[in-house]
Amino acid sequence: GHLNPGSQQKVLMKTGLILLIAGHLNFITGALVHGTVLRFVVTPRDAVSLQYVIANTASVVAALLTISCGIAALMLSRYLAPATLKWALLVLSACSSLGCLSCLLGLLVAIGLTLGNQGRALLAPCTVANVTLAPVSRECPFDPTRVYSSTLSLWAVSLVLESMEIIFGIRCLLLTLELLRL
Q1: Which residues cross the membrane (predicted)?
Q2: How many whole angstroms separate alpha carbon 17 and alpha carbon 12?
Q3: Between the chain's N and C termini, which has fewer beta carbons within 10 Å?
Q4: CA gap 136, 7 in Å, rounded
Q5: C-alpha to C-alpha distance for 131 and 139, rounded to whole angstroms
Q6: End-to-end CA distance of the chain
Q7: CB of 104 closer than 8 Å to CB of 167
């Protein structure tokens, strides 16, 4: 059914806020994964670590898209008139939803790879000898036992956020379509 403009504005505002929050949280999560783990494990020769970086960069980009989508939704909830804003939001929410969907898949692949090889790529900087001698040596920039679980838990958080972004991105898309009466 068609919502009246007042409730449309409320729904848009809520959706925009949720997108903003989810986007920011996801951005932070991506930054944390990168800062704590990925910057140590990136070797261009290693396909797995490359996949991690691509998936992680993509989720940061998707988070930025989600944030801009949220901002556009909030703007539109204030001023329902401008057609350009509606089209912008339509494009943004479509891109954001698609972006988050591809990130979701990328993250699932990353998690699958990590579980599949017991975090081999994550622990690559730590040679086996070092790990037995000292958990944190100069060659190993982090505690190898913790990095595995913390990366996976950060990715799990990211997955939940991506799913939220997809749901609300699509909701935003449908709202905009209704506003444009397409």
Answers
A1: 12-33, 53-76, 88-113, 152-177
A2: 8
A3: N
A4: 56
A5: 9
A6: 14
A7: no
Strands (E), 4-145: none
| Ramachandran class of 47: left when φ > 0, alpha when ψ lies in -120 to 50, beta otherwise | alpha
Burial 121-142 (b: 16+ CB within 10 A, else e): bbbebbeeebbeeeeeeeebbb
Q: Residue 128: how many CA atoms within 13 Å on its side-chain side?
A: 1
65: nearest Cα among 92, 30, 42: 92
Q: Do 19 and 76 form a contact (C-beta atoms < 8 A)? A: no
Which amino acid is located at 117 in the chain?
N
pLDDT digits over 27-78, tens only? 888 888 877 776 666 666 677 777 777 878 888 888 888 888 888 888 888 8
Rounded to two decimals, what is the model's pTM? 0.68
Length of the chain: 182
Could you give the angle at which helices 47-78 and 144-180 cross, rounded to 10 degrees?
Answer: 40
